[in-house]
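Quick start: what a row looks like.
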Amino acid sequence: MRFSIRPSLFSSFIFNFRGEVDYVSENSNRETSLMNRNLLIVLLSLGLGMLITEQTLGVFLHKREVERYRGRNISEPLTLYRAPTNTFPVPPKTKRRIIYLSNSHARTGGFVSHHLQRLLDGVEPDKWQVLDFSDPGIFAPDMLQRGIFALEWEPDLFIFPVAYISFSDRMQLRRQAHTARSFFRPEVFSHLPFGFWMRNYDIGLYLDELMSSALYLHRYRSDLRNLWEKPLAALLHSSLGPEQIHSLEVQQSISWKFPDGFDRNLFDWRLYAEGRSGHLADYNALVSLYHKHKIPTVVANLPVHWEKDPHQHREGDVQLFRQQLKTFLPSEVEFIDYQGTFPKEFSTYDALHPTWHGARLHALDIVLRMISRGLLSVKPDTVLKEFSTEGEQDRDQYRTIFSLPSEEKTERFLRYDLFDAKNARHLLDALDTLKIGSPSLNQYVAKLVSRIRFWRTNQADCGSLWTGSPWEETWLKGCSGEISRAALDLDVFVEALNSSLGARLKPFPISQYLAETAPIEEKVFPIQSERGNFSFSERQYSSDTARIFVYTKSSDSHPFAIAVRPSAGPSYLRIDLLGDGGFAILTDPRNFSLPWWVTDEPLKIDWGIQ
């Protein structure tokens, strides 16, 4: 019997399965290859599209930004610093140059640099150019980058005033102002010490800024978003209502700022003292760099009026900070400690920022130091004469500014610098935006009056800034003259304040009720205060049109308040808040309060940022 061997059912199945597998595998490879090719085509198309977009929309946005800066004054260093890299060349040097680098201390009181430039132009015309690289709210890492950039201007003198708050390491580099992100600028990058990258380590921020330097579309991503976000938001608002659409209306440009407004502990330096070492290292790196370039340098510790600070400060920490500032300074670098030697009273809306007169005195001190270093060949008497002449010119402007037509735009940020002519005018213009007799107007007037009271009762002291120096007499004369001019300016402001309020208070007269007639009734009220016990009297008078109540301190016949109850119309009360007969406060008789000059209470002013 013969047997033929045939494939078993199992082997046949295996054979067929392998064939199918090979067939499927071949098809799968073919599909994968096709998918990879399509993916490559998509990626190349996307890259080409991005390149085209980059070269059209991105370049357009870049040109638009360049044009925006082109209309500005390129002799201003901050214009070049903020403009896109390589947009403008540094102007050729035609005068000797001073770099002034500080924080917001330099930007109040009419700008210290402006007063310095003006004084130098008066004593040595067309020889000096003051370049101000200062900005509000900048810290040591930002100062280091600005100082490096400023080397491009070939400075002849570097002035570096810093303050206790300048070295408060209270936020990461990405949470500081956008100007702290200049580390990839060609002029800055090569000069930054290795320690800067370690002290301010933030690899995410560095990569983000590096991409912004390379790609226009990444740099202008906020502008690109605004192109479609605002029209879309407006369209949705037209149908959904005015409520904010949070997924769209994101203010990315201010994300570095305090999310809930100013930190209420902004001036509580104790909270940030432990993190100061990194900022001090950036400070030392900047000073060392200018010393290496053999550029004369003056470092100053700015004065803080600690009595105005609402927090308790640690005196030991303050002294340590003052010592740290000068510990690593080369002997050739001049260090000025203004704390305790400069008239600290010349600060404005808080404990740090100078008033107009304080900024002028800083400029005077700098010029005297330039003479002492041989940078100026003029005599101190010439400087003093020019300083006094400019002070009188400022007084003329101050006297006339209140008679000029009101400006439509007022400052949103009220600095309460009563001595800056434009700011003082803005403060009075703000009165017209508040309803007469309203609590908001009365509170605003009370803030102005409290500062007037402060300046009238706290005379500045010229201090010991130049004690034992040949220029001491010049300094004392200039300082005392500025104190006198400040007092005269204050009188002008009070007169303008009373005049402005008086015109609006005419419908609520009281002068006719001040005649010496016999009262129909008199009462005495005892009062207990922090200064002791006293009493005031209420004298009641009557006329055909009203009943009048005159309030005087028992030991003084000068009225501090007058209430009027007309026979027709609502009653009202006017209070002489300043004690000069102005009766500036208008309120309801039920909201009776005693002004400060009646009770002799201690001065209480909120010196925080407004």
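That is the whole record. Confidence is low (pLDDT under 50) at residues 1-11. The two ends are 116 Å apart (CA to CA).
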